[in-house]
Amino acid sequence: MLDFIILMAQNGVSNMDVLSVDQFDIKQLEKIFSLAESIERRLKDKKAAKELAQKHFDKQICTLFYEPSTRTRLSFETAGLKLGMGVVSTENAAGFSSAAKGETLEDTINVLNNYGLSAIIIRHTETGAAGKAASVSKVPIINAGDGTGEHPTQALLDAYTIKKHFGRLDNLKVVAGGDLKYGRTIRSLCRLLALYPGNHVSFVSTPELQMADDIKQLLQKSGTTYDETDDVNKVFADTDVVYWTRLQKERLENPGSIDSGGFTLTADNISKLPKEAIILHPLPRVDEIDPEVDKDPRAKYFEQAGNGLYIRMALLDQIASS
Amino acid sequence: MLDFIILMAQNGVSNMDVLSVDQFDIKQLEKIFSLAESIERRLKDKKAAKELAQKHFDKQICTLFYEPSTRTRLSFETAGLKLGMGVVSTENAAGFSSAAKGETLEDTINVLNNYGLSAIIIRHTETGAAGKAASVSKVPIINAGDGTGEHPTQALLDAYTIKKHFGRLDNLKVVAGGDLKYGRTIRSLCRLLALYPGNHVSFVSTPELQMADDIKQLLQKSGTTYDETDDVNKVFADTDVVYWTRLQKERLENPGSIDSGGFTLTADNISKLPKEAIILHPLPRVDEIDPEVDKDPRAKYFEQAGNGLYIRMALLDQIASS
Amino acid sequence: MLDFIILMAQNGVSNMDVLSVDQFDIKQLEKIFSLAESIERRLKDKKAAKELAQKHFDKQICTLFYEPSTRTRLSFETAGLKLGMGVVSTENAAGFSSAAKGETLEDTINVLNNYGLSAIIIRHTETGAAGKAASVSKVPIINAGDGTGEHPTQALLDAYTIKKHFGRLDNLKVVAGGDLKYGRTIRSLCRLLALYPGNHVSFVSTPELQMADDIKQLLQKSGTTYDETDDVNKVFADTDVVYWTRLQKERLENPGSIDSGGFTLTADNISKLPKEAIILHPLPRVDEIDPEVDKDPRAKYFEQAGNGLYIRMALLDQIASS
Fold it and tell me: What is the tens place of the pLDDT at every residue in B97-116?
């Protein structure tokens, strides 16, 4: 069980921090996915679920959110509770806490380090904040999203969803669509897909929101092929996974300039998808997927959100068991 | 124990949702009150209270509040904790969550449905929001107030308080005073009183804030008599229950136009009340009950607020036991 | 175990409220410190920690914060959880709750008194609010800071930190520096030091922010000597405890008028301190202690913050065991 921790340490991540998808290699990923699967199975068994719900009754975790993200916070907190943990929480650390009085993140972490917590789950507006926290923390830090940086548990749950459906993360055809430039989740998913052989990614977006060069280079280096298009009809017929994203208007300087109309999934354009394909979305969804698509058995985005529970339980269980 | 669930289903409320007082008939109400009484009794017994506090240790509930209502939220959360449940919570879902990014309530519920929760307790600014949530939810929804709509657990605790004191909910003389037009709680209480025979309601208010016709018609149909007056002195001498309410200034377009002075309960005007009468108020109270009334043994509003704990525990216990 | 409760009652504090440092005499303080020490020891023993984490599983506490103080709130909540308690919480009672509708603090407390809670931990902007709450509450009230008034658990943890290091709270030389006029924590610490014989306090500040006369008179009466200076170099050579504080700019009318530059602890000026001295700070720290000081073994402020956990657990354990 400690394998993936040791490997993390080898990758330069101290302790049991979960900071970036880059810290994981295939062996660690498979370990996490297998733990998540085991937890998912146990939660469906009443007796096993009760055992889980008592397992870490003497442990406490803290969700330290400098930026609201109710969905992510509630997922982590439910994960902790289902392992028996106690949860302390702040939803608006930036406005409410001593941060407003000028305290540095490092000081806040140093204080929390003396509260006897088993993990600190941090969400922050600044890229790199989770790493900064981890650099001073003896308590494991889990990055729950830091600005335009990373959100590793989202990437893990995305990959886990694909793995559960296809039984593999290699030799897949993935259409990544929507806001590729600012979309943190697609960038992270690409990083994970690049670890496995034989994947192909089709980027579908407007010229303004194309995938950045760093990810393209990373794909090339790893031997992962890709193409770019602005027409979903060209790529949907031969696809395993559609990973669709929201136009993150809050990250754009001039939101009005972009017409997302052409990038709405509808019952009509998903009709071109193979029967076995799956449609993912990190959510929240605004208007980029028509609600009528929800009924399609290939729409897996709500199940995908639920998979975050198992991934987060797997990570928290590992951390608290060490 | 499952009787009232089955009955709820017959009334067209799917699952174990608690959405409206209208979903309950007398048999169900008596079931809930008897469960609440049993829980109240068990909480006073140390050993039985400990059993309750372990009963649902493997269950989690979520309080999803789009509008702050600290009192109601804390009551539901304490109820959950006293049954051993874990609680995840958001106090300002509207401003903080993905709702701000444009997510629909239905999507939020669909996501939470995959978190393995036993119940979602929703408070919302929009009338009908709880029903909308329930229409897509597989997890039971409890309405903790939706706009000017319903707040069924408040109505249940009001009726429970009367039941506990008089041993019955029929053949009672009830004075309903204050803001009858906008007062959600009085409207709901009238609906419950109309289920039982022989009740009489005296509405005391200004002409501007009189009870609306729909409730009057409902009373008439059920054979519940009522009268209207603007003088408390006329009705207090022959009353069992005084249900007083706050002038909900935040719901008025022109708050300054209303003089609530004549509608303040004082030691003086309650002196006309019979000895066995009780004074209820949904709280918060501003100036419509003089604090000197608090010491009067007939003032039951704080105890009434506490009864919410037993009612909510009864509902949560039922839901989690099914 | 009930000794200190009885003594509290003798000092005129009803019930088991923790409102002010003034309510404690030496005997009670030593009782609390010894309990805190025992809890600290037990938390380090896995088996004993598990026993603690189950001890009060049938109790619930409420953190009722009218003013944000994330650090203090999380410390109390973790303390409760580590004793097995359930926690209900509000971070912004003023803006969110029925307080916004005009409810008095007394009414809020009266309502919460009917929720079956074991303690209410209150933080408020108004001096005296905790006492006001206690005056109507049957449930023990713990003051977690009321305006410029008191923050007794902070004072207790400060004294506990000194006690742990020196084994005593008498015959100590203490330098109290920074914002003495508005600094609630230093004022409270002086009150505790005055209970013990042979202490000497050196006040270091600007003329504008000198210690107020009431504390000086209290020291004099108790036989505690003190001096005043604006030069740290004069007093650091012969000091046991440096208690440094932040310039509370939010409490000043004209923050720009004060130059805190001369009152920054640096590796240079702490080089004059004896080897066995300790440096304390109530935190958050802004720029009044250079981060390079953190590495000095005499810097104890993060450990000090952690000691709050043991003090709060000691108080909550006492209250819940009574």
Answer: 566 678 899 999 999 999 99
Q: Tell me: do B133 and B157 sit in the same domain.
A: no
CA distances from A123 to A131, A263, C63 (A): 11, 29, 23
Helix boundaries (H) for A66-151? 70-82, 93-96, 105-112, 129-136
- Indicate if A72 belongs to the active site: yes
The burial class, CB within 10 Å (0-12 / 13-18 / 19+), for A55 is middle
- For residue B165, the distance in angstroms to the closest alpha carbon of chain A comes to 39
- Whether the Cβ atoms of residue C229 and residue C237 lie closer than 8 Å to each other: no
For B164, how many CA atoms within 13 A lie in the half-sphere containing its CB?
25
Q: How confident is the model at residue B259 (pLDDT cuts 50, 70, 90)?
A: low
- Give the closest-approach CA distance of B77 to chain A in angstroms: 14
Interface test mutation site (partner B, options A55, A61, A70, max chain B beta carbons within 10 A) = A70
- Min Cα distance A69 → chain B (Å) is 6
Same structural domain, C140 and C248: no
Strand stretches in C178-281, DSSP E? 200-204, 225-229, 241-244, 278-280
Report the alpha-carbon distance of residue B235 to residue C59 in Å, rounded: 44
**Residue B1 pLDDT exceeds 60:** no
Please report which confidence band the pLDDT of residue B199 belongs to, taking 50, 70 and 90 as the band edges.
very high
pLDDT at C97 over 80: no
CA C82 to chain centre: 20
The confidence score (pLDDT) of residue B317 equals 98
CB contacts of C89 in chain B (<8 Å) are: 89
Are the beta carbons of A284 and B102 separated by less than 8 Å?
yes
Say if the ipTM goes beyond 0.85: yes
Instruction: Look at C90 and B91 and tell me if their CB atoms are within 8 Å.
Output: yes
Neighbouring chains to B with at least 3 Cβ pairs closer than 8 Å: A, C
CATH number at residue A289: 3.40.50.1370
For residue A263, what is the DSSP state? Answer: G
Query: Would you call C45 helix, strand, or coil by DSSP?
Result: coil
Cα separation, A198 vs A301, in Å, equals 24
Sign of the dihedral defined by the CA atoms of residues C286, C291, C293, C297, in that order: positive
Same domain, A169 and A262: yes
- The vertex-B291 CA angle with B289 and B294, nearest 5°, equals 90
Residue of A101, A221, A275, A295 marked active site: A101
Using alpha carbons, select from C139, C99, C95, C89 the residue that is nearest to residue C115: C139
Q: Which helix (H) or strand (E) holds A225?
A: strand A225-229
Confidence band, pLDDT 50/70/90 cuts, at residue A248: low
Domain count for chain B, please give it: 2
Q: How many C-beta neighbours within 10 Å does residue B303 have?
A: 16
Angstrom CA distances, A178 to B151, B198, C181, stand at: 41, 64, 57
Measured between alpha carbons, how far is A103 from C145 in angstroms, rounded to an integer? 19
Answer yes or no: do A176 and A130 share one domain: no
Q: Alpha-carbon distance A101 to C284, whole Å?
A: 7
Quick one: C193 and C300 in the same domain? Answer: yes
pLDDT bucket at C1, cuts 50 / 70 / 90: very low
Among A62, A90, A107, whose Cβ lies nearest the Cβ of C284? Answer: A107
C219-266 pLDDT per residue, tens:
999 999 999 998 888 899 999 999 999 766 555 556 555 554 567 899
Residues A12 and A109 grouped into a single domain: yes
- Look at A82 and B96 and tell me if their CB atoms are within 8 Å: no
Per-residue model confidence (pLDDT) at position B119: 98
pTM assigned to the model: 0.94
Inter-chain contact A92–C91, Cβ cutoff 8 Å? Answer: yes
- C112 phi-psi bin (left φ>0, alpha ψ -120 to 50, beta other): alpha
Q: Which residue of A has its CA nearest to B95?
A: A68
**C157 and C286 belong to one structural domain:** yes
User: Is residue A46 annotated as a catalytic residue, yes or no?
Assistant: no
